[in-house]
């Protein structure tokens, strides 16, 4: 395995969350490999250490590079607005037909972007896809974090709630909240239901105990004096 391939394999794992595709990562890996200073006869340990160091350095700048690329792409779009093709009057019909076909292809996923990306260069189209993938991954991570935080809050409330807590958590796992307000409303309802549940358990526990014994009854039984007949009967038994 040559050094470019070594760098690519390591970079692919470390830069996974950034959303770059394989072609882009191979280009970055090639630049990193060209800057390696290890001798050809260097040990694998030394080479791997240098590769890891250079990749870590590059990863600090990749997000900045993405933002710069986004800025350049936005400027390119501003400088290349959609225009009508008036150069060939004789081919108006064919031109209109071709333009409609291009728009139909570009609007399959997003009808609002009519004609905006049809004439963009290939590198720009790839960059748009990369940025979209990155945004989707960030949104997914944020969603997972929010869900985890909400679940932990609910679990803390229901930690001693028995079967009521189990049922409520199962329901929570199937629910989807559009925002924090919806979750807080649900959480408040659970708090009220939990209070009612605990009160019902307390009432049921008291009723099962029955009436308490009268005060001093045990002491009276312990101090009760035996009759003469009971004493004689006990003596005969011995």
UniProtKB/TrEMBL annotation:
Compositionally biased residues, Polar residues: 96-110
Coiled-coil segments: 124-151
Taxonomic superkingdom: Bacteria
Comp. bias regions, Acidic residues: 83-95
Keyword annotations from UniProtKB, A to Z: Coiled coil
Region (Disordered): 75-122, 198-227
Name of protein: Uncharacterized protein
Organism: Bacteroides thetaiotaomicron
